[in-house]
Amino acid sequence: MDGTVLVADDDRTIRTVLTQALTRAGCRVHATSSLTTLMRWVEEGKGDLVISDVVMPDGNGLEALPKIGKERPGLPVIVISAQNTIMTAIQAAEAEAFDYLPKPFDLPDLMKRAARALEQKRRAAPTRAPAAEEGDDLPLVGRTAAMQSLYRLVARVMNTDLPVLITGESGTGKSLIARAIHDFSDRRTMPFVVAQATDLEGMDGPSSLLARARGGSLIFDEVGDFDEETQARIVRMLDALPDNAPRIMATSQVDLARRLESGKFRQDLFYRLGGVTLTVPSLRERVEDIPLLAQHFLSRAEREGFPPRHFSDAAAELIRAYSWPGNVRQLENAVRRLLVTGTGEEITRAEVEAVLGAMPAMEPLRGGGEGDKLSASVAKHLRRYFDLHGGALPPPGLYDRILKEMELPLIEIALDATGGNQAKCADLLGINRNTLRKKITDLDIRVTRRRKLM
């Protein structure tokens, strides 16, 4: 790797780590905690690559991207940020950042991206898309690899004309993804029309829909539930799209591939809608995002006038441990109920138990039959994890990471099932009690004797 890299981050540790890694790779590095200093270096013609944080003491790294592009066309910028929301990923893409990585990032992965950026530095800069206006605070937040991969895919497809199929369980936020693609795209000033099956009825149904959505976005909501005649109407409509046709998107919580195999969904419609498929993961597939989302809903409710409240450690633990079969929508409703029914500043475990007590503990995983083996279910999740990286390989160290991620919930669930009794848990797992204690320590598992929810 050869070139001069400008690093801007207010975290001294990150500056040190990046400086050492890039220097060892053969680069010259200038590092600063000031956006003003970074811009001065850019204006002086220094640097072949910029690696910049978003929130800096004297400015915003994303807002500086257009200035960098104007001053130094073709200078690649890799954005790193702890603001792990879909809006950050989209804004980075719209500002023509070379790449975007959420914090905490994988250093070898960042180094590979830096090498690609330096290799492509001489390529002409692409036409710059207009900046998106700040929208409402969307509950599309997440630090997990699954959500960050989804954000990157959204950023890549939002200004294409390819049809988009958005899949995922009920309550995961499929409609929000569709809305985000529209609101941050070049079509943002045009209509956003959500179509139901009834909108396609009658001779004028399809033409009326196209007229309403002209030039904007047309979304078929839960298209997997449409009957055969409605599906045929959509096919005929898509085959005769007029000039200035809307962007076509569809959402589905059912597995359309299985519907296709059983003859309940038209093959021609399946391929017309699936130009790009985005899968929104369930909360069970991104457990680490549950506390982040819960806090997001608390903060939003406070802005709406609710009194400020916060979760106790025990309450937060229970929120994280629950399976949330209704996904993000169910979590939001539960948080709002806690705000309405509670009084003190701290939300207790007893309050959470009362709210969750009337809710189902778990739903069967979609797409799996009753006879599916555990290995088959694990394989489906692993395949989805690979697919969410958009054709790229996951970060290195996958074997140990997957084993650890499987071991942690296994031990936590076994401890829950045995009421925190380590002797019973060790017997259940078939391991030595001392081995269990060591794993509890190594995995930083909190053990309390607990009463299981009925």
> How many strand units?
14
Q: How much helical structure, as a percent, in the residues? A: 40-55%
Q: How is the main sheet built?
A: 5 strands, parallel
- Taking all Cα atoms into account, the compactness measure Rg is 25 Å
Strand neighbour order, sheet with most strands: 2-1-3-6-7
Unreliable residue runs: 124-138, 360-372, 450-454
**Structural class by secondary-structure content:** alpha/beta
Number of helices: 19
Strand content: 5-15%
Please state the average pLDDT score.
81
Separation, N- and C-terminal Cα atoms: 59 Å
Instruction: Give the overall shape.
Output: globular
What would you say this structure looks like, in words?
- The protein has 454 residues and is of the alpha/beta class.
- The protein is built from 19 helices and 14 strands.
- It has helices spanning 12-24, 35-43, 61-71, 86-94, 107-119, 145-157, 174-183, 205-212, 228-238, 256-261, 267-273, 290-303, 313-321, 327-341, 349-356, 374-387, 398-417, 422-429, 433-442; strands at residues 4-8, 28-32, 49-53, 55-56, 59-60, 77-81, 99-102, 164-167, 192-195, 217-220, 247-252, 276-279, 310-311, 346-347.
- Helix 12 (290-303) packs across helix 14 (327-341) and helix 13 (313-321) packs parallel to helix 15 (349-356).
Topology:
Layout: E1 4-8, H1 12-24, E2 28-32, H2 35-43, E3 49-53, E4 55-56, E5 59-60, H3 61-71, E6 77-81, H4 86-94, E7 99-102, H5 107-119, H6 145-157, E8 164-167, H7 174-183, E9 192-195, H8 205-212, E10 217-220, H9 228-238, E11 247-252, H10 256-261, H11 267-273, E12 276-279, H12 290-303, E13 310-311, H13 313-321, H14 327-341, E14 346-347, H15 349-356, H16 374-387, H17 398-417, H18 422-429, H19 433-442
Parallel strand pairs: 1-2, 1-3, 3-6, 6-7, 8-11, 8-12, 9-10, 10-11, 13-14
Antiparallel strand pairs: 4-5
Helix pairs in contact: 2-3, 4-6, 12-14, 13-15, 17-18, 18-19
